[in-house]
Amino acid sequence: MQTPGLDAAEDAPPEPGEDLTDLPGFWAAHLMWLCGTEDEEPEPEWFGVDGADVDEAFEALSDPERRFVLRVPFGGGHVVEMRVHSLPGEFGTEYVVTHPAWDREGHLATLDGHYAGPGLAWRELVHTAGTPDLAAPGLHDPHTRLLLLLPALGDADLPPEAAEVVREALVGAGIPEPEAPRLSEALLTDHPFWDPPSWGPSATTSPLSGAAPTDDSFDGILVCDEPHSPRNGLRLAQGITPEQTRSLAEALGTYPSVRCSRS
Questions:
Q1: CA 92 vs CA 62, 100, 114, 151, 236: distances in Å
Q2: Of 143, 242, 237, residue with least CA distance to 184
Q3: CA distance 232 to 208
């Protein structure tokens, strides 16, 4: 016996969902949960919309009979996919990296009741958002890309300009300029799921062990010290060749420099 909605959602092929970002309430639906503080609960008005706009966007995203994927193509044929899933009693998103030459995908983060993350260091987030593959289908606007990937971020060493970068992305995506500074600070303050980790180069010696990596040992893929992250001591994508690893690291902006790879 089939369960209406549940089986439909599991069996439905993923649909390109990039057009959902055009809904007035999309950014509030996507980010509002991430920008609460101890002193303030976020409101739709922070995003320049009202509650009805947010409800409409969330209903579209959480349609139990459909599955959406929002694609962020970047260098070398790589794509970050944000996959939206909605099952009875559970709504969430998953971030993965895919490449047509890989046998399996790389897991970045999962945002639901069984969360895993973070999946991106600040350096990777900014580089990936700013290097769209214009020949591939998906989202190409750097501001939209950065905000879509932002919930997968976790980094203890954010640079001083981080809040300004996020503020510019918010304004570029249509958020009212007077609200953007407050939103930017809130989005980078406290992630509801994880503490910000330290990132370092993966090598034959653990980057978190205190041993200094060398240019010869660093394969370009960063790892972090957050135990809930798929990237805690593991490469982003398992089972890919050294050449594919280097291509991925170049696309993420973390190869070849060890020194520059630290957030």
A1: 9, 25, 9, 12, 21
A2: 143
A3: 10
Summarize pLDDT for 145-198 with one digit per residue, the tens: 999 999 999 999 999 999 999 999 999 999 999 999 999 999 999 999 999 999
**pTM for the complete prediction?**
0.88
CA distance 14 to 137: 14
Per DSSP (E only), the strands in the chain are 14-16, 67-73, 79-87, 90-98, 106-111, 199-201, 222-224
CA torsion angle 100 106 108 111 (round to 10):
90
Q: Which residues pair with 80 in a beta bridge?
A: 72, 97
- Per-domain residue ranges of the chain: 6-192
- Cis amide leading into 151 (omega within 30): no
Residue 110 contacts by C-beta under 8 Å, 6 or more apart in sequence? 92, 93, 94, 95, 116, 117
- What is the distance between the alpha carbons of residues 263 and 261, in angstroms, rounded to a whole number? 6
CB 12 within 8 A of CB 129: no
Instruction: Tell me how crowded residue 195 is: count the other CB atoms within 10 A of its CB.
Output: 13
With a cut of 80, say whether residue 206 has pLDDT above it.
Answer: no
Q: For the chain, how big is the Rg over CA atoms in Å?
A: 18
Q: Per-residue pLDDT tens for 75-103? A: 999 999 999 987 666 779 999 999 999 99
**pLDDT (0 to 100) of residue 132:** 97
**Within a 10 A sphere around the Cβ of 20, how many other Cβ atoms?**
17
Question: Edge-to-edge, what's the strand order for the sheet holding 79-87?
Answer: 14-16, 67-73, 79-87, 90-98, 106-111
Question: What pLDDT score does 216 carry?
Answer: 52
Could you give the CA distance from residue 90 to residue 113 in angstroms, rounded to a whole number?
8
CB 15 within 8 A of CB 66: yes
